[in-house]
Amino acid sequence: MAKIVAVSVSPKKGMRKINVEKAVVKADYGIEGDAHAGDWHRQVSLLASESIAKMQAKGLDVSPGDFAENLTTEGIDLLALPVGARLRVGREALLEVTQIGKECHSRCAIYYQAGDCVMPREGIFARVLAGGTIVPGDTVDIVKA
């Protein structure tokens, strides 16, 4: 069963995020209190805990939120999801995948702090179709692949 292992936000872009107990997501906006929220296609970012584990195996001292992801998942192959896939997170939130990975034009603060950044290679981005509250432990279900 796929689930959320961490929920993270930050006040500025390009920095590690802080893990929080819950996040309120708003349709067509993103996560309240997060720098990436707004009227665009990358309102929420997701990264698998399995990707973080690969970086830890390389000796990096990293944990959920350190790659600026909002939602750290477990048990779902994020990279296998096509653009347009829809994910139900918890009971209410509905996300639509809008982008797989990203181009990193320069090495950001995360790269220099962590020694590498896996987000451009293994992170995915989504917009919020239906809002709600997301907490660690919430299930993640693919409702449209």
Description:
There is one protein chain. Helices cover 13% and strands 36% of the residues. It is mainly β and 145 residues long. It has a single domain, classed as Beta Barrel (M1 Pyruvate Kinase, Domain 3), CATH 2.40.33.20. The strands form 2 sheets. The chain has an 8-stranded mixed β-sheet with strand order 2-1-6-5-9-8-7-11. Strands 4-3-10 form a 3-stranded antiparallel β-sheet, with no helix packed on it. The mean pLDDT is 91.
Q: TL;DR?
A:
This protein has 145 residues and is mainly β. It has 3 helices and 11 strands; from the N terminus they run E-E-E-E-E-H-E-E-E-H-H-E-E-E. The strands form 2 sheets. It has an 8-stranded mixed beta sheet. The chain has a 3-stranded antiparallel beta sheet with strand order 4-3-10, with no helix packed on it.
Q: Topology of this protein?
A:
Blueprint: E1 3-9, E2 18-20, E3 23-26, E4 30-31, E5 44-48, H1 49-57, E6 71-74, E7 86-89, E8 93-100, H2 109-114, H3 119-122, E9 124-130, E10 132-134, E11 140-144
List keywords for this structure.
single chain, 145 residues, mainly beta, M1 Pyruvate Kinase, Domain 3, three-stranded antiparallel beta sheet, 3 helices, 11 strands
What fraction, in percent, of the residue positions are helical?
10-25%
Main sheet properties = 8 strands, mixed
Q: What is the mean predicted local confidence, pLDDT?
A: 91
Strand order of the largest sheet: 2-1-6-5-9-8-7-11
The first-to-last residue Cα distance is 16 Å
Please state the overall shape, judged from the principal axes of the Cα atoms.
globular
CATH fold-level assignment: M1 Pyruvate Kinase, Domain 3
Number of structural domains: 1
H/I helix tally? 3
For the secondary structure, the number of strands is 11
Beta-strand portion reads 35-45%
Class of secondary structure makeup: mainly beta
Order of helices and strands: EEEEEHEEEHHEEE
> Radius of gyration, Cα only, in angstroms?
14 Å
